[in-house]
Design a protein that fits this description.
By secondary structure, the chain is α+β, with helices and mostly antiparallel strands. The chain has three helices and six strands, in the order βαβββαββα. It has one domain.
């Protein structure tokens, strides 16, 4: 019987990289969302998904600069409810995380 998948919230750069690296995910920006201040709409791109037309690869350094500037947190799921590795992730405001706590 499947159990509920558990989420956790990450803000530590090393933890985020470790989670992403375990899934071969790469840091990206959504094409067309770049701002004059160097920010963009962040995403993680996973192998085998259709991000190649809509996502632009960026460095982890740039990804984390935008992540910190926008005061974001990454909600992740390590495993699905049936125990398989999960790629679920969602970028949210750190204020949103505080409000839920």
């Amino acid at each position: 019987m499947a159990t509920k998948a558990e989420e956790r919230t990450l803000t530590d750069h090393d933890e985020i990289r470790k989670w992403a690296d375990a899934r071969d995910a790469e840091p990206t920006c959504v094409k067309g969302t770049e701002s004059d201040d160097g920010t963009c709409l962040l995403r993680l791109d996973f192998p085998g998904y259709s991000g190649e037309d809509s996502l632009q690869p960026i460095s982890w350094e740039q990804w984390f600069q935008v992540f910190d500037k926008r005061k974001l947190a990454l909600i992740v799921e390590d495993r699905t409810a049936d125990g398989k590795p999960s790629n679920f992730n969602k970028l949210v405001s750190r204020e949103t995380v505080k409000a839920k706590a």
